[in-house]
């Protein structure tokens, strides 16, 4: 009975989301972001830009895992692919928008290869494959150190922003422009036939096949879409940091991404936004505590600890994630 109630609530939440006009939501989000870039101090604006970059990857990952049921532990490596592609492009051509598009295309191609293999795997085998990708991709930078400059990484050449805005404002506009376009595209995509196919495959592959849904094609396409989002996120991170290195995309990043979307709410784009905020907020708190204690090792362990504690608390209080919470209210007269 509890499982049936949870599924009923999930369907009701999706119907409520479907009633929202995505264009109005994106327009309102753009207005809020622009206003915040003029109100916040530079460091907070930088953090706002980082949330936008994270939103690209968490939105794609929550669609892959929450709507299609594929578990990925390799999205940090896909972000690294996009970041290094943009760095190599910028250092040669210094054309940002085409470079971001190239980064998305290259990461999408990598995601297609992984997706073809992932379509044949289930459960822990799929997790193992994507985990291997997360381990292998950073090691490539050390193998081809003449191209990727090994552990030192690559700088990213960028033209200065217009004189009318600060660097942080420009970064926030670029990152949130990509994030809002990503959310809009995913919202429209998941409302159509492709979204229905993904949910059907997630719920029951046998029933989906009987209904005429190509399970393998749906799973590959879901991975490709999610990889494209990760590639965009990686390129935006390269813009923010103005450099890329293997240390910026460790294995723990993939774990944090997965925990963030679970805490936020699987299958919900609003949950992806909550997860993106947590990806910036919790490590920032851990950094402040680590600095106060004078220990970098403590800082790294605290970030993982915070995510673990929040994950346990949220799963006990709201199994559907923070996005599933509804604020109770009483009508007048009761």
TrEMBL record:
Transmembrane segments: 20-40, 46-64, 71-89, 95-118, 125-144, 170-189, 220-241, 247-266, 273-290, 302-325
Keywords: Cell membrane, Membrane, Transmembrane, Transmembrane helix
Main location: membrane
InterPro entries attached to this UniProt entry: ABC_transp_permease, LivM-like
Pfam families membership: BPD_transp_2
Topology term for the membrane: Multi-pass membrane protein
Subcellular location: Cell membrane
Protein name: Branched-chain amino acid ABC transporter permease
């Amino acid at each position: 009975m509890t499982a049936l109630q949870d599924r009923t609530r999930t369907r009701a939440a999706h119907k409520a989301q479907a009633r929202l006009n995505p264009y109005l939501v994106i327009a309102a989000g753009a207005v809020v972001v622009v206003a915040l870039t003029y109100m916040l101090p530079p460091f907070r604006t930088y953090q706002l830009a980082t949330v936008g970059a994270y939103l690209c990857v968490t939105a794609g990952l929550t669609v892959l895992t929450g709507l299609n049921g594929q578990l990925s532990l390799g999205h940090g490596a896909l972000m690294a692919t996009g970041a290094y592609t943009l760095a190599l492009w910028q250092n040669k051509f210094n054309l940002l928008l085409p470079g971001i598009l190239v980064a998305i295309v290259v990461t999408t191609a990598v995601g297609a290869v992984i997706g073809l293999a992932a379509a044949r795997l289930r459960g822990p085998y799929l997790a193992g494959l994507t985990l291997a990708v997360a381990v292998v991709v950073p090691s490539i930078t050390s193998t081809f150190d003449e191209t990727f400059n090994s552990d030192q990484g690559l700088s990213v050449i960028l033209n200065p922003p217009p004189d009318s805005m600060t660097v942080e404002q420009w970064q926030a506009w670029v990152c949130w422009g990509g994030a809002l376009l990503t959310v809009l595209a995913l919202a429209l995509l998941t409302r159509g036939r492709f979204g229905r196919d993904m949910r059907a495959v997630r719920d029951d592959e046998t029933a989906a096949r009987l209904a005429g849904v190509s399970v393998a094609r749906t799973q590959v396409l879901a991975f490709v879409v999610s990889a494209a989002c990760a590639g965009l996120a990686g390129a935006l991170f390269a813009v923010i940091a103005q450099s890329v290195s293997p240390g910026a995309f460790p294995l723990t990043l993939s774990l944090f991404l997965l925990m963030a979307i679970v805490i936020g709410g699987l299958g919900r784009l609003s949950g992806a936004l909550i997860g993106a905020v947590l990806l910036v907020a919790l490590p920032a708190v851990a950094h402040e505590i680590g600095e106060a204690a004078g220990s970098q090792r403590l800082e790294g362990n605290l970030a993982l600890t915070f995510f673990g504690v929040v994950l346990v608390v949220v799963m006990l209080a709201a199994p559907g994630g923070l996005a599933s919470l509804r604020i109770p209210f009483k009508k007048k007269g009761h």
